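request received
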Amino acid sequence: MNPVLEVRGIDKSFGPVQVLHDVTFAAYRGEITALVGDNGAGKSTLVKCIGGIYPIDAGDYLFDGEQVHVGGPRDAGELGIEIVYQDLALCDNLDIVQNMFLGRERRSGLVLDEATMEEMAQQTLTSLSVRTVKSIRQQVSSLSGGQRQTVAIAKAVLWNSKVVILDEPTAALGVAQTAQVLELVRRLADKGLAVVLISHNMNDVFAVSDRIAALYLGRMAAQVKTADVTHAQVVELITSGRSGDLGLTNGVST
Amino acid sequence: MSKLLANDEAIVTAVRQPSIGNSARAYTERVRGGDMGALPAVLGLVVLCTVFALLRPTFLTPVNFANLFTQGGQITVIAMGLVFVLLLGEIDLSAGFASGVCAAVLAVTLTDMGMPWYVSVLAAILTGVLIGLVLGVLVAKLGIPSFIVTLAGFLAFQGVLLVLLEEGTNISIRDETILAIANRNLTPMLGWGLFLVGVGGYAAVQVVRSLKRSRRGLVADPASLIAARVGTMAVIAGLAVYVLNLERSRNPGLVSLTGVPIVVPIVLALLVVWTFVLRRTAFGRHIYAVGGNAEASRRAGINVDRIKISAFVICSGIAAIGGIIAASRGASVDPNTGGSQVLLYAVGAAVIGGTSLFGGKGRVMDAVLGGAVIAVIDNGMGLMGYGSSVKYIVTGSVLLLAAGVDALARRRAAAAGLR
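response:
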């Protein structure tokens, strides 16, 4: 199977600090790829490079097997890549519909087409079996953590996107809400999207993911199928960059 | 002016609740949660008007009522522009003198160079746009805090004003069209025409939107709610037009003085246009978004710098119109046009009306309501015989009160999870 999204040999530095070294990463249609790594391993940086927030210093960016250039968030959005950030990036003073269409409002002529946007937002929420929100004209500030996460995820799938990247979607949630969000994440993959899940929580990773990619100090230690590895091996990859035959030798990927 | 209250409240609640009862309930909930919107301004207006009317019966005369509009015109218009900057959580301290500089450009081109009035008006507004562009670029691209940039502008424009007026001469305005803005009135017939167009247009917009939405199976406002809103607006607006159409000349035999001041339709037109821009266009949506969460907006692909620059351009551009109104009212431009209390009154108007100093919350309507409060205070205190000293102290206290209410409401809303 060919990956939808693939980056090869990505380098990224901030001034004198090189954060990503020769990173290769792929995401597949209908699968959840967990991106794991310790704090500062470069998970967020890699995601922001993929999302076009940071320009990459070197490396190839392939989408559907074609070489592409992503110069900004809009380019990534046009390819069908959506990122749900850890801090959700919602505007508290806007309602659910307004947030879901932020930056890509539907218009008829000069005027915003509120009715169409409302319908599309409603359809998307229904297709994801979201029933927890009272009204889609509610201000986001009045929503709970889980509901906000749901809105942020729904916003990402509204655009017939092909790749959805979730940055720590369950980090701030309670047990029940975590289960709900993970279920939603699984549903996204079952709909045929390529899902990338950044997580610190090994239970979450093993519960839903199909593949695991482990970053270690800015290098990709390994990208493996979840079924082929154990909990302990993944923890080892995260903490030392290698585990048996897997991972880096002397800090360089094999 | 409060006739427009019904109008704008409606915009806020229109999309949410289907019946009058539910609307009222949702509104009460919001107020309790700290989102008071225009409530303090409306209550303040009612209290102030009652007190002044009881203490000084002259306050209620048609002459004084008409004066309120011309007195509040400049401040209200500048406050409208400030709403755009405040929505982003920025401030423009230079808007007052920017309006003065634009008024001076008007006066110089009109009186000294003898250009036709429309060329001068265009020149004044372009000056405002240019000023906004410079301020906006400095804030957005260089990242200097808007407080500092516009404080510098406040000082510098004062100097520019002096240069334009050749170190303090007073340029008088003799052009009939410009003078008419703050000194002439619509004929009573035109006043009623304005009333019909305003109320009819508002009703049409409401009904069409409701029909469109219910045809698509979306939650729409019921006829009763629309009728209540349009009715309230019609009563208040009708009363205002009726009073303004009464004879208010002391000597009706010599000169007749009736009708809606021309500044009123100008303010209303600005209100409608800019409310439309803020509420119904993607640009307006993006202003709210940047004010609510600039980082989220950036990630959504919104050009935050461009939004910031355009907010400053709009603010100074509208301030130019405020300057033109001031020039018309004073029939001249002097080194203090747009100076002294004008800016703080305008900021006060926006904040009293319910625009948040923290960004993300506010409407153009707020400027009109707040402007009305300021005009009433200024006018009423004058009638009571208080001098500038007391006026300044009271207005300052009201501004502080409004900002305090804003800050407290925000805290409360945070606790209630509303904002």
